[in-house]
Amino acid sequence: MAVTHQNDILIKILSRLEKVSKPDKNGWYTALCPFHDDRNHPNLRFNERGFKCLACSEKGNLKKLASKLGIEIDSNPEKSVEVANYDYLDESGKVLFQVVRYQPKGFRQRRPDGRGGWIYNLEGVRRVLFRLPELISTPLETTVYVAEGEKGVLSLVGQGFVATCSPMGAGKWRDEFVPFFKNRAVVILPDNDDPGRAHAEQVAKSLITVARSVKVVALPGLGHKEDVYDWLGSGHNRAELEALVESSPRWELPKPVDLNQLIIDVSGFIRRFVVLPEHYLLAISLWVIHSHAFDHFDTTPYLSITSPEKRSGKTRLLEVLELLVAKPWFTGRVTPAVLARKIDAESPTLLLDESDAAFSGPEEYSETLRGILNTGYRRGGKASICTGQGANIGYKDLSTYCPKAIAGIGNLPDTVADRSILIILKRRMPDETVERFRRRTHEPEATALKGRIATAASSLEVTVPALPEELNDRAADCWEPLLAIADAAGRDCFEKARQAAIALMVKDNYQNDSMGVQLLTDLKQIFSTQTYMFTADMIEGLLSLDESPWNDLRGKPINGKKMASLLKSYGIRSQSIREGNQTPKGYYRADFDDAWKRYLPHTVRQSATSATPSFDSNVQNGPFRSATEAQKSENVADCVQSCANRNVADVADQNPLRGVPGEIEPQNESEVLDQWRDLSIPEWRRILKVSISSGDKGRERYARWMLREVLHDPEYEELGS
């Protein structure tokens, strides 16, 4: 049979499409697009006004979509026949508007024009409940039934019940209807489909705080999309319905979820399919819950899922997350236009696989992706696009804010990695076993778990957590939402999350320094105590560092020009330094002090390319003095590499070895000096050897003096020979 009205067409379309979602707050549905091979991820968005595919860009009105689906459309709406109209009255009995029912099935709303005619829209008209005057006049002790549509209401009235409904069907319930049910017993009868059940839950939640009792009764034996009208029409009667109501329990709000146990359960589900260390597992589990509540926060951390080799579990982890996160969008490649528009329209949880291919692919896509990731970690992040054509051209800002997990081999661009929690997966060892993942088998369990997550997220009360001091500003932004969730779960969970944040964002397994910062770190070590160095010597020093990147920068070793380019952005420039009759290019140590203080960590840490602690940038060449004759200046606690001209007082207040693994906090000045000597002697031995081999006489003399006069190296004579 041909359909005519938009609502009828929409109902037919909903029955033909695959993977149809519930309507969002603006009435938009999503489904697999019939205009292209849309197999896994719904890209079609539509409502009663039309449709558009975010992947293939096909768009149009519902008739075009219905035609593609083989739905016959009657092009002559005059053939439809008005079969019923339902008056919606205010408290005094005045008609506010009508809902008109047509055959074939369709609905339209209209309002009086004041001249005996009708205007077919409800602009400016107050919405009220169907049969409102009858509801108001009903005694409070009488049970009130709520159906989804007017036909169902009238069938209940025909059985002697008091019944009502909201106008325009499922999903249109309004808060202003609630006061009319105060102190009443209410029975809600949902239609047998997902929109009907969702509508019943919406009504129940709104009435539970004012009604005397609320029951949601699912009628047995209904076919798909059937309702109470069909149930009564099939021979059931008032007595049967009353018996069903009597035996049904009262509806209650979902009980608060034990958030700590939920985090444990999420971790347990993920662990069954992917081998992960505990810190990673906790971070991912908190991020899953965050995906359902990211609107509570100002930032959303990304998960950067990487591995050194293929077949390490990256895609499997994304497949598991797809079952748990809110509004998942699992994709490997989309057009730039779809990427921006879908994030703006749906705020999905983006699960992006094969990111290494994406960033090395076509420039337009990789740059669009990079821009969305750079801005989309913070609320209010936007990407701007052009709209219209010719004289009507304009622009539109699209929101880029949504949770994102990005998987691929290798590192993300620095600006994206800085907004991410790094998850490094390793290929399983033979004795590490996991359960074989089958979506069809495990989805029901995951759906129940996801429902608990959604319930917990809807009632989540978050506060600003105490952030670990070890985190820098960007790391704190990443972890604040996750720590807030952990804090809401209890003290134990928060402490574990705090430790995970420090382990993943501070320790050596999270090295995210830029090339420039790494260069500053390594040059600080190479400079040691020298006041200046020639460019050639600096390059030689960089190339001699073990595990340094400087021997292979895109296939070539670093040279003076590349080093100068990297240092220029920090305000450091080479100068001509006179030595005898020559003036080779070089750098003064003093020019590095500002950059070292600003960009290198203030705590004791190791060079990115060496296992030895970096030298103190404040040590200057000067007159030889003994430790006891040194000028009283900075405290030795400021750096384990401090030279003899430092004060060792007040050591009880500052531990010079705090943060150095395996060290014992000193109890007195003597112990401070002993431990400082133990750390410093190996370094100065190395400096002496390098100085001798390079012919640097000035540096050699200073190293000898340090070992002999200051450190009292017992092996000095042997080294110096």
UniProtKB/TrEMBL annotation:
One of its GO terms (molecular function) is zinc ion binding. SUPFAM superfamilies: DNA primase core (SSF56731), Zinc beta-ribbon (SSF57783). This is DUF3631 domain-containing protein. GO terms for biological process: DNA replication. It comes from Dehalogenimonas alkenigignens. Residues 425-599 form the DUF3631 domain. It holds the Pfam family DUF3631. It comes from the Bacteria. Transmembrane segments: none annotated.
